[in-house]
Amino acid sequence: MGVQLGLKENWKQFTLLVIINGFVGGMVGLERSILPQIAEQEFALAAKTAILSFIIVFGIVKAITNYYTGALANKFGRKKLLVAGWIIGIPIPFILMFAPDWNWIIAANVLLGINQGLTWSSTVVMKIDLVGEKQRGFAMGLNEFAGYISVALVAFLTGWIASEYGLRPYPFYIGIGLVVFGLFGSIFFIKDTKHHVAKETATSTIPKLKNIFWDTTWKNKNLGSVTQAGLINNLNDGMAWGIFPILLAIKGFSIGEIGIITAIYPAVWGIGQLFTGKMADKFCKKDILYVGMFLQAIALIVLVWADSMADFVVLSSILGWGTAMVYPTFLATVAENTHPQDRAKSIGIFRLWRDLGYAIGAILTGIIADFFSINAAILFIGFLTLVSALIIHFRMKCRTDGGLKLWEWITNKHQQIAGINNAKEHVMQGH
Q1: What is the rounded distance in angstroms from the CA atom of residue 11 to the CA atom of residue 84?
Q2: CA dist 35 to 96, 244, 328, Å?
Q3: By C-alpha distance, which of 198, 208, 157 is closest to 5?
Q4: Residue 301 lies in a domain
């Protein structure tokens, strides 16, 4: 039987890739809720910049690896890069368990950055290859759901295990299982998608980019708007990753409560993408991206005044939903605006800039928090996110075939509901 594009036609391979990406996300979750505490309690690091150094290293290494994964995907094939990523991930849980000083933790994050760049980028590109044009948003929603729900689940589990049995080594046992299942699943069950790319290339009407790097980075209005928003999105996620646990500890929350709050944000982000991915297929992607970045900005700015558990749960949920709106939409927009032969490289360039946001966010947050305060750092990042939303609003364009305008749909729905209510009133008056 010939190669076919579509989610239904390729559901077996697609499902396997979703599961593999769950293991990929879990590797990041290992560090999400307890590494800042390990820095302070076991290695006596006080400066926020020093504590956040593990995120800085992770962000830079992952960003560069994303670029090379995109550039090499057509040459070596997606599967080989996926397997290579898992092999590089093997030492990570063991280093986190037994590291004698902070430099070993940094080394583990170099490996984690390479692992994430190779594995996550490969699964993203393979899913886009499989589904074809119509369901890319939904495909990316499923991909990112699997990854980020695993981040949340493992973040919660490591926080809980740490509160019961101590910070090391027990929370990191989970990592051994993730590596084993991820590696063997990738070797024995995943098939390459080069034939799907060839099929789509034969029918694509999208022109090739003149300069893939500069067009994706800024020159192309749609691609450039998505790339800057990706950078700012991960910049504020880098801040949340490093500063949330410290901020909550200062406010007197227990390590168990910190585990719950730090898990809510990626959990809403993860689950939300099951819905927002489909929205990206239905509505103009510009509208989805603008609303998502705007919600993130509002949640971060208001966070400065949060005090109770309820405050943090609500704001973490809004931040998570805003991120859920943009994350699958970023990748679907890049795919929508690139030729199949350019796509892997363009996604790699987008992910280079997006994940540099982790490093830039951690550096900015650390410097502002050390020189001024944690609240000043959060406000600064919140206003940067608001600027990013405005760039999308004024620079991006909806494609003519790019779905319904979100605002028109909301207005039409409102008018329909008003019309039904008026009709009911008319009937009631008639009686």
Answers
A1: 24
A2: 9, 12, 27
A3: 198
A4: yes
pLDDT score at 431: 58
Residue 415 maps to a domain: no
Nearest to 32 by CA among 246, 241, 174: 241
CATH code for position 278: 1.20.1250.20
Highest mean pLDDT among 14-23, 46-55, 158-167, 233-242: 14-23
Phi-psi region of 405 (alpha: psi -120 to 50; beta: other; left: phi over 0): beta
Residue 405 CA to residue 398 CA, distance in Å, equals 8
Question: Helix, strand, or coil here: 393?
Answer: helix
283: helix, coil or strand? strand
Q: Please state, in angstroms and as integers, the Cα–Cα distance from residue 63 to each residue in 23, 347, 385, following that order.
A: 20, 11, 20
User: The tokens of 264 are what?
Assistant: 């809510």
pTM score, whole prediction: 0.89
Structurally, the chain folds into a number of domains equal to 1
Domain enclosing residue 17, as ranges: 11-399
